Amino acid sequence: MRITYWLASTAAIITPALIPAQAQAQDVIFKPIVEARLRYEGVDQAGPAPLTSDRDAHAVTMRLRAGGEVSKGAFALLVEGEGTLALDESYNSGVNGKGLYPIVADPETVELNRIQLQYRTKPLVVTLGRQRINLDDQRFVGSVAWRQNEQTFDAVRVEYMGIQNLKIDLTYAIAAHTIWGVDGGKFGAANRPARIDGDDLFANIAYKTRYGTLTGFAYVIDEDEAVPALRRNSSQTYGLRFAGAMPLAKKVKLSYLASYARQSDHATSPVDYSADFATAELALDVAAFRLTGGYELLGSDGGATGVAGGFAFQTPFATLHKFNGWADKFLTTPGTGIQDYYAAAAYTLPKVGKAGPLVASFIYHRFSSDRLSIHYGDEYNAQVTLKLNKRLSALVKYADYQRKGAASFAGDADTRKVWAQIDYAF
Fold it and tell me: Cβ(403)–Cβ(410) under 8 Å?
């Protein structure tokens, strides 16, 4: 019965988007959207109470996105529905009330994922409506594509490229639709709502040089929510980012990244604080191998008022799974901050029979605090991805977080996660 309801509800959302395909005029272009993902995620987490090592999480979920884009000239209308079904719900989705299991943040949901009207020319793109927004490497604003239910924004976005080598990207958002889906906020999960209202400004100005791209950015967040844990995310962040690459020899390339930002409280935030963000990374590509080393700081203000124990730099709208380890132990920055030292190695095999490419990667993280000299723990990540054909891809992934000493923040526990996933895109 639940499967029938899920399929019927998803069809009710996406069918209107497909209608224009039946009656498209010669000068109207219709592009269908069909994406599916089947995933297994297992979590073995030792404590803290009430979690125990014999109550592991096992999540088998299926995600479907479908819809379409109708365009004529410079104008385009896109409508996309999204639904996630739990085939095995032996896990805490964050909003299903199964608090004795570790969290796998893929709740069941059916929703209108995107509905946007777009005007696009070579120098100017304007997007109005519920939309996906990914800025730079998604460290501050992203769509959280790793989760089954992605994050979208009700916003107006203006991208201007009319000046050579310069891009101006401005967004005003009145709401973020979170990964928690239609049941967000239920079962006592008030800090995991389906929607976060506010007045948010995202501004990027990027200039391309022969050595890389220099970006100045400002992210001003005003969350209009009663829950203190959400209102603490009201902040203003200003910074610079420089990223580029240069060839060193045939089949040898050096890539580099450096960024700095300063964050402080804003608007209705109950916390008075200021904190720094900094990152630096070097990557060396030699034929099929890639070696990477880097450092990231999310600083802490030990003198912050309005919260005990200090308050640290937060990135509430980021694609957080990309950063600070795949075990997701640092989705909320601990009050004492984070220093993440990491090293990675990857190998790409262009062909495996008729399939390919195959990419194998390994990452090591060492996590410590910004204040009080705490060594939180170490994490080991490994992943293999394979493009099976034009439409299908597969992934196997592993994360192992090993805590050092006593627990230093909420959720600080030895954690192992494993994933197996198949993706289809039309």
Answer: no
